[in-house]
Write a structure and sequence with these properties.
The chain is an alpha/beta fold. It folds into two domains: 122 residues, 2-Layer Sandwich (Nucleotidyltransferase, domain 5), CATH 3.30.420; 170 residues, Nucleotidyltransferase, domain 5 (2-Layer Sandwich). It is built from twelve helices and eleven strands. Strands 1-4-3-2-5-6 form a six-stranded mixed sheet, with helices on both faces. It has a five-stranded mixed sheet with strand order 9-8-7-10-11, with helices on both faces.
Length: 311
């Protein structure tokens, strides 16, 4: 997607905000009044890339792409970034990433804040201490920044240990159920709308194809299979039940926060929640009626840009 520019005065004080995931990095430039002056996206960034030479080279290349895209609209005076897989803003990984971004953007590390992607997602929904963010995409997590600015979390432990209710989890559970049924009644998949939809997306009904898709595929690619589950839900009760169960699993994360820190409103966001209304239905049914629930389309890169302009 090309950058979306507005007229930017040459002397405007600009903040650069980043919302970086493994698939893409969304960026925005905001002025001191909080107005978005330009936005766009470049390749994905992840803190996990810092662990290898190849990853660091890719990070540097993406940082230069970012500089080329953003500096055409003005030179930022500060940067606020939420990076998936990075961890704490004062940790060694954040310092290493600042060095890479500094070389590309010409900004001093002291003018940068690099932290978790959940930090800016939460601040897009609430001021610290106000409520709980429930975010469901490829993974799933509940986040709460307390009044002291500390990030508290439930879930978000990855595909092997958690992420229940996420796009990846929906895809995995759907395929697992189909193959359990095949163990008991080989060929029964042909009578299942859900199974037919999933096998069509994978490329065939042979176990070897499912095995390669799950164990040889990227996490994001597997998560996108949840789209086929949502499509089958129009006529397949197994798909409908699974989507409701996904909502219930997401509610468990919010309930963990409610038990730990008390009643507060919940904002639910992320692409997994947009798959089908049954997910929201299952989420709402599993939460106490007294808890306010709002489903919201967040723009964390805009929030990050406004925070950067204040640095």
């Amino acid at each position: 997607m090309p950058a979306v520019p507005l007229d930017t005065p040459s002397n405007a004080r600009l903040g650069l905000g980043l919302d970086a995931g493994g698939t893409q990095t969304r960026w925005a430039l905001a002025d001191g009044a909080g107005r978005c002056m330009a936005e766009g996206h470049v390749a994905g960034l992840s803190g996990l890339q810092l662990a290898s030479v190849e990853g660091r080279v890719a990070l540097a290349q993406t940082a230069h792409q970012l500089a080329f895209a953003t500096l055409a609209h003005g030179r930022p005076s500060g940067l606020y970034a939420g990076i998936t897989g990075l961890g704490e803003a004062d940790g060694p990984a954040a310092a290493q990433l600042k060095d890479i971004l500094s070389q590309a953007l010409g900004l001093k590390p002291a003018a940068m804040v690099c932290g978790s992607d959940m930090d800016i997602a939460y601040r897009s929904a609430f001021e610290p201490g106000q409520g709980y963010l429930l975010y469901a995409g490829t993974g799933a997590i509940a986040a709460f920044i307390d009044a002291q600015g500390r990030m508290q979390r439930a879930g978000g432990r990855g595909a092997l240990l958690g992420d229940e209710g996420s796009g990846f989890w929906i895809a995995r559970e759907a395929l697992a159920g189909i193959w359990r049924r095949e163990d008991e009644a080989p060929g029964s998949w042909q009578d299942s709308v859900l199974a037919c939809a999933l096998f069509e997306a994978i490329g065939g009904s042979e176990w070897a194809l499912t095995r390669q898709f799950i164990y040889g595929g990227e996490r994001g690619t597997i998560g996108r299979l949840a789209l086929a589950v949502a499509g089958a839900a129009q006529t397949d009760e197994d798909a409908r039940a699974l989507l409701r169960r996904a909502g219930g699993e997401l509610a468990r994360l919010a309930l963990a926060m409610l038990r730990r820190y008390g009643p507060r409103p919940v904002v639910a966001a992320g692409r997994a929640l947009q798959l089908h209304p049954l997910i929201i239905e299952g989420l709402r049914a599993a939460l106490p009626e007294s808890i306010a629930l709002r489903v919201q389309d967040l723009q964390p890169h805009h929030t990050a840009a406004r925070l950067a302009a204040r640095l």
